[in-house]
Design goal:
heterodimer; A: mainly alpha; 12 helices; about 0% strand; B: alpha/beta; Rossmann fold; Alpha-Beta Plaits; 2 domains; 6-stranded mixed sheet; about 35% helix; about 30% strand
Chain lengths: ~270, ~300
């Protein structure tokens, strides 16, 4: 496993494009809590909400313990896109350069090739989770009025959900890249699907036909649903503040499908 | 001699097209084996199956008398079609990656760069290499794990004459170290110059297999001209060892068995009182032979 991860990392660290993407990802990763706090202050300054303190965004306990884990995990879904690009480019490159073929000729089995990509995706998902946990602790201890261990660790399961979510989207990109093989088309296809096709279909399903569960079963929706929108509770509305088994089940099923599909695509096709 | 590679009934169909049809072949250790055939004859498809990138429709093959697996490919150095490397990496970084895949020692990187004459360019990016340098790097990568077998597919394709010469020298040098080399090529004289044994493929079928030495180097054609061509023809027809007499553009072409020499022919002619105005021994052209094989099939 370690040998395969090393092989994959050798392919990545020698490439300037991947290094830049990685650096952008880290930068975005670390600057989000600061940026978001200032964003809330900015909203309050420009759109004063009056005396009702529940409606003052800069007073929301966003970074207080108990709430912080879900809030951070939810906010950080937007930076996953950077590492998604790394996976997309690294996989389509291998087809473009025909290096996947040469790797196999040189003595990698197709299973090993698949595993080297999977190991990298697991490793970077793990890294993201660890950094996020550290950021959570630092920011939490800085802002939170309560720092009892009991509170600090409550809702920590959102870190697990975050790990799963990052891996889930990397796997999604992996499968699409294997299917389409061309960087430009894969990139356009993924963006079109995530931001146009699936939102339209799911909105129609849930709003017009009230088939909310069916809409939740679409792959991107299922991925997002691992960490549900937490902020509604600050408007005195209900929001799901736990990781639901049903959401885990749906995402788990898709993840299993992505794993199986990618394995078949790598091992069964002529290269 | 032991067998390096044994192929039995290997077949690959792409839809209705049969790219390789029931191929049977055995390659012995230490030989330089040429796979000859025009473009599209199934050479690369065959090698692709032998190297695990193309799944055979039917048939089997066995490397080193031991079946086939990705572990075995670590002991095979192979290039298919064109040199394939990560363009953004340097030559050394690319070889380092191949080392990691094959489990070779990193000290080999400098050694193989030296062997192919790329020592000074190891730190340059692959995308900046000329075609000849890319081809050399590919051979370096193929040599990195000190393999038992080298598989080279059109190694001189697209090179300039100097490049072609250098690569052929390199292949011959490698052959003297006792490695088995499988060389696919559509270039006839390349196979003649480099190989000891060869086979000919056409539209996926094996149509000929033999030894380069026996089939080409020693077969004799003698070109003769005399004043009286018809008398010359009659006399030549009576000489033992001559298998074919042909008149072509005022010249008589004689083809004969291996031990036929211009000396023996001339002796007989002198005895019969025929004076030649022209006598020349031709090596039978491989191209001619090749075309004959293709026509016969």
């Amino acid at each position: 496993m370690l040998r395969l991860l090393k092989i994959e990392l050798t392919k990545l660290y020698t490439n300037r494009f991947f290094k830049v993407l990685g650096a952008l990802w880290l930068f975005a990763f670390i600057s989000i809590p600061v940026a978001f706090k200032y964003f809330l202050v900015w909203i309050e300054k420009n759109e004063p909400t009056g005396d009702n303190q529940f409606l003052k965004p800069d007073q929301w306990p966003i970074f207080d313990f108990v709430d912080i884990w879900q809030n951070l995990a939810y906010l950080y879904k937007m930076v996953t896109i950077f590492i998604c690009f790394i996976v997309l480019a690294s996989v389509t490159n291998e087809f473009d350069y025909k290096t996947i073929r040469q790797n196999v000729i040189d003595g990698m089995s197709r299973r090993e090739w698949w595993l080297s990509k999977i190991t990298f995706m697991l490793a970077i998902s793990f890294l993201a989770t660890v950094i996020l946990a550290v950021i959570g602790l630092v920011v939490g201890y800085a802002y939170s009025p309560v720092t009892d261990v009991e509170y600090v660790l409550r809702n920590i399961e959102f870190m697990g959900a975050y790990f799963l979510q990052v891996f889930y989207f990397l796997m999604f990109c992996f499968v699409i890249s294997l299917l389409i093989k061309r960087a430009g088309f894969a990139f356009a296809g993924i963006l079109f699907y995530i931001y146009i096709l699936e939102p339209i279909v799911t909105v129609i399903l849930s709003e017009k036909y009230e088939l909310t569960f069916l809409a939740d079963c679409f792959p991107i929706e299922a991925g997002w649903n691992l960490i549900r929108l937490p902020f509604e509770k600050y408007f005195l509305m209900y929001s799901q503040d736990y990781v639901a088994w049903l959401d885990l089940g749906v995402a788990g099923a898709w993840l299993a499908f992505f794993m199986g599909m990618s394995y078949l695509l790598v091992t069964r096709r002529d290269l | 001699m032991s067998t390096i590679l044994e192929i039995k009934g290997l077949t690959k169909r792409f839809g209705r097209l049969t790219a390789v049809n029931q191929l049977d072949l055995t390659i012995e250790k230490g030989s330089v084996f040429g796979m000859l055939g025009p473009n599209g004859s199934g050479k690369t498809t065959t090698l692709g199956m032998l190297l695990g990138v193309t799944t055979p429709t039917a048939g089997s093959f066995s490397w080193f008398g031991n079946g086939h697996s990705h572990e075995m490919r670590k002991n095979i150095g192979a290039i298919l079609e064109q040199p394939v490397f990560y363009p953004y990496m340097t030559g050394e970084q690319n070889l380092d990656l191949v080392c990691q895949i094959k489990g070779a020692e990193k000290t080999r990187i400098a050694e193989v760069l030296e062997t192919v004459g790329l020592s000074g360019r190891g730190k340059d990016k692959f995308k900046g290499y000329s075609l000849g340098m890319k081809q050399r790097l590919a051979i370096a990568a193929a040599l990195i794990n000190d393999p038992h077998v080298l598989v080279l597919d059109e190694p001189t394709n697209g090179l300039d004459p100097q490049g072609i010469f250098d690569i052929r020298e390199l292949i011959r040098d490698i052959a003297t170290t006792g490695k088995t080399i499988i060389l696919a090529s559509h270039l006839l004289d390349e196979v003649q110059k480099v190989c000891t044994e060869f086979c000919v493929l056409q539209t996926g079928n094996l149509i000929y297999k033999g030894s380069v030495e026996e089939d080409f180097a020693d077969s004799t054609t003698i070109e003769l001209v005399a004043d009286d061509l018809s008398k010359l023809k009659t006399v030549l027809g009576g000489i033992s060892g001559i298998t074919e007499v042909e008149e072509k553009d005022g010249t008589i072409l004689v083809r004969g068995e291996k031990d036929l020499t211009s000396l023996t022919v001339n002796k007989v002619l002198v005895e019969k009182g025929i004076v030649l105005t022209h006598l020349r021994t031709l090596k039978k052209s491989l191209e001619e032979q090749f075309m004959e094989i293709l026509k016969e099939s």
